[in-house]
Amino acid sequence: MFGIELVDAAFLPAAMVALLAGILSFLSPCVLPIVPPYLAYMTGVGVGGLKTGERSAVVPALFFVMGLSTVFLLMGMAASAFGRVFLQYQEYLVKASGVVIVIMGLHFLRLFRIPFLDTEARMDVGDRGGSAMGAYVLGLAFAFGWTPCIGPQLGMILSLAAGGAAVERGMTLLAVYALGLGVPFLLSAIFINRAMGVMNRIKPHLKLIERVMGALLVIVGVALYTGQFARFAYWLLETFPALALVG
């Protein structure tokens, strides 16, 4: 696709993990509750104004997703470039990444707490509500600054991106992660009233979602450290040969 060969042995399972991580990031305890206020701020109306359709949140939400996607794509490119520079040490880097990812996963499983991940590093974007450019800047700030919620998941995807030599691979993995995080945000803006109802039903289960995210981090971390991630990738391609045609 687009003349770029993206599929290597580990790309497909990595892309699946990236998509799931993006969705779980959206559903995480400190992202999901702020979706309605963010949409209201970006459109320049209150939450009540969103419910009554006083102003559409779709365009601002689109620019917000573009903003966070810009940062994620740059991160993916940087991670792949880093992996290429240290290609001779890649085996050790992957194992180290696996250990760090497992530790972060245990934090989300609440087996212990890491103070750094319990603090928020938000960027002040000033009074930019109600404009598309303001929404774009807010997306940039969100991607850079929302450390407690998306930091560990993002770190996991960056580790997977650094495991491949192709810059396109890293950028694509981060694009898939942005898709998992951004599409639910856009759908919330399009179907705002229904989305708020769904969010209210999900809120009692946020701790469970956090633990699912922790379990995913632990599984991926262990798989990276032991080499099982690559073995699973080869098994996937051998079992479903048609997947090799993707790209």
UniProtKB/TrEMBL annotation:
Cellular localization per UniProt: Membrane
Transmembrane as UniProt keyword: yes
Keywords for the protein's UniProt record, in alphabetical order: Cytochrome c-type biogenesis, Membrane, Transmembrane, Transmembrane helix
Spans traversing the lipid bilayer: 12-35, 56-80, 92-112, 133-154, 174-192, 212-237
A Pfam family that the UniProt record links to this protein: DsbD_TM
Location of the Cytochrome C biogenesis protein transmembrane domain: 15-224
GO CC terms, sorted: membrane
GO annotation (BP), single: cytochrome complex assembly
Bilayer topology: Multi-pass membrane protein
Transmembrane helix recorded as keyword: yes
Family classification: Belongs to the DsbD family.
Protein name per UniProt: Cytochrome C biogenesis protein
Organism name: Paracoccus halophilus
Origin organism lineage: Bacteria, Pseudomonadati, Pseudomonadota, Alphaproteobacteria, Rhodobacterales
